[in-house]
Amino acid sequence: MSINEIAKHLNVSKSTVSLVINGKAEQGRISQALAERILTYVQEIGYKPNVFAKSLATGRSHTIGLIVENISDSFYGPIALHIEKYLRKIGYHVFYSSTLGSIELGNTIVETMLDKKVEGLIVCPTNQMETSLEAIQKQQIPLVIFDRKAGDMATNYVGTDNYGGSLLAVDHLLENGFQQIGLVTNDSTQSQMIDRLNAYTDKLSQEGFHATILRLDFQADALEKAEQIKVFLRENPQLDALYFTTNYLCIAGLKAIQALNREGSYAIISFDDHELFELLQPAISCVEQPVAQIAQEAINLLFKQKKSPDLPLQQVIIPSKLIKRKSTC
């Protein structure tokens, strides 16, 4: 039942019902007897306010939009959970959505979030998503980008030190005597992937070693990736170590190595941990991204901008952590 229907049933004005429901009876000079009659009826019928309509009237929805590439991913899922926990503590809710790397889907999601009157957005952008992000900024809605940059856009940003983390991985392999290090990455032009690639090529060039790189189609499925990695390994028998720039590429690589019966033939390290890596034999070394800290910093930046819209934009770069396991030792 709507406020309008309640007002008709009680033979009072819609504004009177609204004032009472929102705890403003005294402010509206409504008698205690009338206020009690309205509240009693509202309780009897189990009335629940339309949150969306209320947000239109007050400009407050107490919701934050979170847009990621894939909510089921072992990186984005935990970040989303941490964001939800932090926001719940301060009385906010989260609208989640996944772009699946699609520009069109990403733009549609932003439009939907804005229609829902979210009070801020935390976004892991797709390529060429700048137009939608600029629309958020034009509406003066707080915006924080995380994980990868949105082209050359000036935004609040939170992310891992991808270049530094990648150097940790390559340095670790070199320090353990591995010199023929193959890199398995994807053909993405996203900033975080470029940084991981550049750290690898820069370090090997500096040390006088040859870079051997496999760039996989970002859109290829896991089976296709594993098949291409098998070909890469057959064509490069000199390799003694493999560095995978994401955990899902590492998993595809492990399947390829198993299919070739080459378990134990390579030192293996991944950028990004995965719950499986510690359980495998040998356990897989990795560069770990601090997901809880990324989530907290994103929320901090968002609410700073919400409180003080004229504050200068900030970029928070968080160091990664090298986790040494038996696959590289």
Description:
This protein is α/β, with parallel strands linked by helices and 329 residues long. It has three domains: 3-49, Orthogonal Bundle (434 Repressor (Amino-terminal Domain)), CATH 1.10.260; 59-160 and 292-318, Response regulator (Rossmann fold, 3-Layer(aba) Sandwich), CATH 3.40.50.2300; 162-289 and 323-328, Response regulator (Rossmann fold), CATH 3.40.50. The protein has twelve helices and twelve strands. It has helices at 3-10, 14-21, 32-45, 51-58, 76-89, 103-115, 130-138, 162-175, 191-207, 222-235, 247-259, 291-307, and strands spanning 63-68, 93-98, 121-123, 143-146, 156-160, 181-186, 212-216, 241-244, 267-271, 285-288, 315-318, 321-323. The strands form two sheets. Strands 2-1-3-4-5-11 form a six-stranded parallel sheet, sandwiched between helices. A six-stranded mixed sheet has the order 7-6-8-9-10-12, sandwiched between helices. Helix 9 (191-207) links the parallel strand 6 and strand 7 (212-216). The protein is elongated, with a radius of gyration of 26 Å. 37% of the residues are buried. Residues 1-58 form the HTH lacI-type domain.
Structural descriptors:
329 residues; alpha/beta; 434 Repressor (Amino-terminal Domain); Rossmann fold; 3 domains; six-stranded parallel β-sheet; six-stranded mixed β-sheet; 45% helix; transcription; LacI family DNA-binding transcriptional regulator; Lambda_DNA-bd_dom_sf; HTH_LacI
